[in-house]
From TrEMBL:
Gene Ontology biological process terms from the UniProt entry: canonical Wnt signaling pathway
GO molecular function: Wnt receptor activity; Wnt-protein binding
Domain of life: Eukaryota
Name of the encoding gene: Lrp1b_1
Protein name, UniProt field: LRP1B protein
Biological source species: Lanius ludovicianus
Amino acid sequence: KLFFTDYGNAAKVERCDMDGMNRTWIVDLKIEQPTALALDLINKYVYWLDIYLESVEVADYQGRRRQTITKGRQIRHLCGLAVFENYLYTINSDNLSILRINRYNGTDVEALAMLDNAKEIRVYQKRTQAAVRSHACELDPYGVPGGCSHICLLSSSYKARTCRCRTGFILGSDGRSCK
């Protein structure tokens, strides 16, 4: 799945398949400017910053069990968001510090380090990396991903895929080749 925020005409947190299909709104009420999000892949929660409402919130992948983690004016200066174990990590754009926030109660806010310039933060940890298994976009015997001549995108499951073409090309009737 691909998770993303949108604060155009109607602000929301959404998800879709990697090929853009099955687009689903997770949160579309009481949300104004969601600017960053992070996923708890193990427990299936999505966290987001709303700089207009000055809040950090969480909901499950279906938009249920929504909770506010923390609120306050300091939120409008945050950018980027990552989750690891009991904490959220973000960047304070005012003083370029990395902040750690307890994700269960919004307390224990601690500045960990100062940076010269940063707008995004990521945590990489082996437990959060999905195990690699056979999937529909694997190289075929000719070295072509999923048999697609240009781009292979996973669809509704790791067993399904959609072929797409680069700009200026159209997908052929076989659903795999680009012309």
